[in-house]
Design brief:
- With 516 residues, the protein is of the alpha+beta class.
- 26% of the residues lie in helices and 29% in strands.
- The protein folds into three domains: 171 residues, 3-Layer(aba) Sandwich (Aminopeptidase); 176 residues, PurM-like C-terminal domain (Phosphoribosyl-aminoimidazole Synthetase, Chain A, domain 2, Alpha-Beta Complex), CATH 3.90.650.10; 105 residues, 60s Ribosomal Protein L30, Chain: A (2-Layer Sandwich), CATH 3.30.1330.10.
- The protein has 14 helices and 25 strands.
- The protein has a seven-stranded mixed sheet with strand order 5-6-7-8-9-11-10, sandwiched between helices. The protein has a seven-stranded mixed sheet with strand order 20-22-17-23-21-24-25. It has a five-stranded mixed sheet with strand order 12-13-16-14-15.
- The protein is elongated and about 80 Å long.
- It comes from Acrocarpospora phusangensis.
- InterPro entries: Acyl_CoA_acyltransferase (IPR016181), GNAT_dom (IPR000182), MSMEG_0567/sll0787_C (IPR023911), MSMEG_0567_GNAT (IPR024035), PurM-like_C_dom (IPR010918), PurM-like_C_sf (IPR036676), PurM-like_N (IPR016188), PurM-like_N_sf (IPR036921).
- GO terms for molecular function: acyltransferase activity, transferring groups other than amino-acyl groups; thiamine-phosphate kinase activity.
Length: 516
């Protein structure tokens, strides 16, 4: 049979370990003929390359360190055919059952039958499977972003060659992060702990597998912290200003002293205005009415400030803005337009609330509730970053959602911002001088969004509230609400998983603005 060379390499990885991954390019040419059955070929039992490493085609391979042998070229990718999966399982049997006697008869388990389990294999240019690893959800319930890797195996004849094992580990980490995983772990044989540590994994605790010493290790995923980091400069920048006034520092809106007015202002990223002007106009209204809603305020009107290269482009932005204002039933009172300049858009909203709901009113012991509109879809062009649940809702639905905080009057409320759900929870906790715990299994989430995406995206309409246990839910129309955590003593945000494990989302304050 003739084996086609695979040109793709699964080499994506987080920047934190990129500098430690040398990339070696090996020159290859034509397809190579070899004999034997599919499994024999994949395992390299029969047939070898007639011309070991001829030159012409660059195939990059991620390598994990030095060695005396010249690196053998290989690619890593999902096992897309039954032959590759079977070859991987045969390697596992050879190593874990026959060589190491870790298992008496078979190392197969329920994870091999789970259709969500992913197998990544390393192949040489002839298609021979040199090693593999599997990864997938930790249990048989809904995928809540907790995955485990395991059954990492390298063909006995390849163990002296550098790169295959470490590259498989790195590929598994990259695949998990791309799949929206927030907790990724593996039981590592104690003698291999140092290898995983060099690759950036962190020791959790010693465990035993089939009576053999192992170490539970965890891959650090900083996605939530990275989203929250966008708010970190606020404290130093605004020091001494006390934005929002005493009791409302860092809030979504600012009560106007001596009145029942609440004002807020938001700007849209210039790149987003340029790329999607109509959607930018819609979002400029959306983010401002959500800010008022988090304060329990009823919107009274909007003022816009628009810069655009010409009148035609300005009209596209204003079309989206006017459409959103009409959908929410909020008048545009006026504004300012400047043409002949780079695109920019900001909107100021004014509302009324006799007693605004603060963001910093939460206290340790208060229950956290997320109320979010799970309808809709990812905005085209913003998959994983912006969830559009509002553009297809009726005015009645939209008004019910933005009126929910004012109707329920929780102790504290914040509109989920670009810092994501976890980052916004961190801001709510910081304003109340608290820490927070988020229960991953109880988090309302659209079925089409991974946990990693959902916790770090802008979700359209989503409110985080804190209140005493037993407090009523928000009457938010089509939105879904659930208790999913609590405020605690301390600082930062931790994620609580079904097995009781707590993992750190970020250790301290998000904004540095301090208590409200």
């Amino acid at each position: 049979m003739t084996a086609s060379l695979r040109h793709s390499v699964y080499a994506a990885h987080s920047a934190q370990s990129r500098s430690a991954r040398p990339t070696v390019h090996v020159r290859l040419t034509k397809q190579t003929r070899f004999a034997g059955s599919v499994c024999d070929t994949l395992l390299g039992v029969e047939g070898r390359l007639a011309e070991p490493w001829p030159a012409e085609l660059d195939v990059p391979a991620i390598l994990g360190g030095g060695g005396t042998r010249p690196p053998r070229p290989f690619t890593i990718g999902p096992a897309a055919d039954r032959g590759a999966v079977l070859a991987y399982r045969m390697l596992r049997r050879r190593v874990f059952v026959e060589d190491q006697a870790l298992f008496a008869d078979s190392d197969l388990d329920f994870r091999d039958d789970d259709p969500r389990t992913v197998v990544l294999v390393a192949r040489d240019p002839a298609g021979t499977v040199l090693g593999g690893v599997r990864l997938g959800p930790a249990d048989d319930g809904p995928d809540i972003g907790w995955w485990r890797g395991g059954r990492l195996v390298v063909a006995p004849g390849q163990r002296g060659a550098p790169g295959v094992g470490p590259a498989l580990v790195r590929a598994a980490c990259a695949y998990a992060e791309e799949a929206g995983v927030l907790r990724f772990e593996a039981d590592v044989q104690a003698r291999h702990e140092s290898l995983f540590a060099r690759l950036g994994w962190r020791r959790v605790r010693p465990v035993r597998v089939e009576g053999v010493p192992h170490v539970l290790m965890r891959w650090p995923i900083g996605r939530i912290a990275a989203a929250a980091d966008t708010k970190a400069p606020l404290g130093p920048l605004l020091r001494g200003l006390a934005p929002g006034g005493r009791g409302f520092v860092g809030d979504d809106g600012a009560p106007v002293p001596g009145s029942d007015l609440v004002a807020c202002c938001d700007a849209i990223l210039p790149s987003m205005v340029e790329r999607d002007p109509d959607w930018a106009g819609w979002c400029a209204v959306l983010v401002n009415v959500n800010d008022l809603a988090a304060m329990g305020a009823t919107p009274s009107g909007l003022l816009d400030a628009l810069a655009a290269r010409d009148a035609s482009f300005a009209a596209r932005v204003l079309a989206g803005l006017y459409r959103a204002a009409e959908a929410y039933g909020v008048p545009v009172l006026g504004g300012h337009t400047q043409l002949g300049v780079p695109a920019a858009l900001s909107v100021t909203a004014i509302g009324r609330a006799a007693q605004p709901v603060p963001g910093g009113g939460g206290r340790p012991g208060h229950r956290i509730r997320l109320t979010a509109d799970l309808g809709g879809r990812w905005r085209p062009g913003y998959t994983g970053r912006q969830w559009d649940s509002t553009s297809t809702r009726t005015t009645a639905d939209l008004r019910a959602m933005i009126g929910a905080v004012g109707a329920a009057r929780p102790a504290a409320a914040k509109d989920v911002s670009m810092a994501g759900i976890a980052g916004t929870l961190g801001m709510l906790a910081e304003a109340g001088s608290c820490g927070a715990v988020l229960d991953m299994a109880d988090l309302p989430r659209p079925p089409d969004a991974t946990v990693g995406d959902w916790l770090t995206c802008f979700p359209g309409f989503a409110m985080l509230t804190a209140d005493a246990p037993g407090a009523p839910a928000l009457p938010a129309g089509p939105a879904t609400g659930a208790e999913c955590g609590e405020l605690t003593q301390g600082r930062g945000v931790r994620l609580r998983w079904p097995d009781g494990e707590l993992t750190e989302a970020f250790p301290g304050p998000v904004t540095g603005l301090g208590p409200a």
